[in-house]
Amino acid sequence: MSVKIAIQGIKGSNHHQVAREYCSVDAELIECMSFDYLVDRLLDGSADKGIMAIENSIAGSIIPNYALVHDNNLHIIGEHYLNIHHNLMVLKGQTIEDIVEVRSHPMALLQCKDFFRKYPNIRLVEDVDTAETAKQIQDKQLKGIGAIAPKVAAELYDLNIIASDIQTIKNNATRFIIVKTKNKELPKEEINKASVRFITDHKRGSLATVMNVMSDCYLNLTKIQSLPIIEKPWKYAFFVDVKFDDYAHFEKAKSLLNIMLDDFKILGEYKNAML
Q1: CATH number of the domain at 188-270, out of 3.30.70.260, 3.40.50.2300, 3.40.640.10, 3.30.230.70?
Q2: How many other CB atoms are found less than 10 A from the CB of residue 241?
Q3: pLDDT digits (tens, 9 = 90+) for 35-64
Q4: pTM surpassing 0.85?
Q5: pLDDT tens digits along 209-257
């Protein structure tokens, strides 16, 4: 039986590309037009795993997704880094001189802004998804309309790429997390990264104390993100990613932080995907 994987967006999206690269077996894709809908598919059992973008090297963290993972008790079982390539695609036979409007996800439009300064006659229009726009162009035979989307979208929807890699910053990557409703899948000896969440007291040096414990246990902090706690104004939760060479070091840190903190939670233990 194939694994059912929920992705944000449709076939041809960056989430679809991650599913193709991360999963070694054939997977059944469940297309979701929002991250909330994706989480619902995990919770109701329609999907076995979900793929969620969590941060971009240019735009930073996708903050609502941190809350979705924690609030729905999801477990991070893996991660994947994808180099982002934005391509301008159109119906076959169209050229850039024919294009009067380009549609795509707001982030894609933002990251390609400099390219379109050379074409002031082209109107940029925000849409819900990169691949969805590409699909609409083919389905409705939209002339004069272009889409910014991954290369795989042009292949799937039979469009021509008339300009490749049009993003302003070429070194553009997104980190995706793979989530499930159940806990880790790997043996301890293969685990070398973890994501945790905790809340500190409103005391001087509270966060520094937590960081010192992590340092003393030989954990390398790779990410820290604060998020307000809605029901407690001016109080914040911290989401932290750490890497380690020996799982025993992380186990020691866990035991100490469980004692020190009232609200310490492991969001996931998995294999570091950063080369």
Answers
A1: 3.30.70.260
A2: 24
A3: 999 999 999 999 999 999 999 888 889 999
A4: yes
A5: 999 999 999 999 999 999 988 888 878 899 999 999 999 999 999 999 9
